[in-house]
Design goal:
6-stranded parallel β-sheet, alpha/beta
């Protein structure tokens, strides 16, 4: 005969505490003395007790799980964001249910629907400009939700985001202050709100410049391949720009690779800057000037606020938080001598 499964009553009997105390200890409630919590956890491990998730959800009306809905899972940005979210979730003994709608806004409705009944709250990143009303219709009204980098401004949900316009203004201002008068900009996806704000900041900085600046705008997709293609397109021109500002670090690194393949020296022949300050930015050669965004910090703050909303559903809702990135100047935009005339390509 098969051995019967260990139950919560077995754990309570072995630890010499009540079933309610075991439940509170395993669910991370605060009203359990720490020595008692550690005793319960040790007994549960020794007996190999596994809580029945469905039964626990029914009894407590809590799944102890938070849903995270992202447009994609690929790339340093999403990796860093998830690192911040996961750190807070782990500290509060919460599980994560992560899903992506693969860059297809029309799929996000079905992804959000699949979260119903499975999570206590939602973190949603939907950066597509013009789709705010559709997203609002899709968000479950009965699940606490916090938005990340999502262009919704009606106050219906807290939004934790980055001031990309201010960041692009600062980076373009840095390049102008260095004396660069010919600047190329590699943009992001056309429908992406972050990409639009970074392009707007670039254009506004040039428009405010006291002298005329030659500008070039190239398309990009926030990935290394599109940055590489943009770099190749610049190399095909009769003359290189004095500086290149890529709307994220991944594209900047792709562009840098194209330049290095062609024997173009950065920053001697052309300066190069990115945006986001991903971990790799400081380890490439030359190290990359960029706008520092605490991506993991963004995830941490959004997750912390969501957990507060779950714990205190009747509390006053904050409108969220707008993080202002900071300029990090590294070797890739250093200008210690006049530009090398070898930047002429023809």
């Amino acid at each position: 005969m098969a051995k019967s499964a260990i139950t919560i009553k077995d754990v309570a009997r072995e630890a010499n505490v009540s079933v309610a105390t075991v439940s509170r200890a395993l669910n991370g409630h605060d009203n359990v003395a720490e020595p008692v919590r550690q005793l319960v956890l040790e007994v549960a491990r020794r007996l190999r007790y596994t809580p029945h998730a469905a039964a626990r959800s029914l009894s407590s009306r809590s799944t102890q799980t938070v849903g995270v809905v992202l447009p994609d899972l690929y790339g340093e940005f999403f990796s860093e964001l998830m690192r911040g979210i996961d750190g807070i979730a782990s500290a509060h003994r919460r599980h994560l249910l992560v899903s992506s709608f693969h860059g297809e806004p029309q799929q996000q409705g079905s992804v959000l629907q699949a979260m119903r009944g499975r999570v206590d709250g939602l973190l949603v990143l939907s950066p597509y400009a013009g789709d705010a009303s559709a997203l609002l219709d899709q968000l479950p009204a009965d699940i606490p939700t916090v938005l990340i980098n999502t262009p919704i401004t009606d106050g219906s949900h807290p939004v934790f985001s980055i001031d990309d316009h201010a960041g692009a203004l600062a980076m373009t201002g840095h390049l102008l202050a260095q004396g660069y008068r010919s600047i190329a900009f590699i943009g992001g996806p056309e429908r992406n709100h972050d990409a639009r704000e970074r392009l707007r900041g670039f254009r506004d900085a040039l428009a405010a410049a006291p002298q005329a600046i030659e500008s070039i705008e190239l398309p990009g997709a926030f990935d290394e391949a599109s940055g590489y293609e943009a770099g190749r397109a610049l190399l095909a021109r009769p003359r290189l720009p004095e500086a290149v500002f890529a709307a994220n670090d991944m594209m900047a690194l792709g562009c840098l690779y194209a330049f290095q393949q062609a024997g173009v020296r950065v920053p001697d022949q052309v300066a190069l800057a990115g945006y986001d300050d991903i971990p790799l930015a400081r380890f490439v050669h030359p190290s990359l000037t960029t706008m520092q965004v605490s991506i993991a910090g963004l995830g941490e703050q959004a997750m912390s606020h969501l957990l507060q909303r779950i714990r205190e559903p009747g509390s006053q809702q904050t409108p969220g938080l707008m993080l202002v990135p900071s300029l990090v100047v590294r070797d890739s935009t250093a200008r210690t001598a006049p530009l090398d005339p070898a930047r002429d390509r023809g």
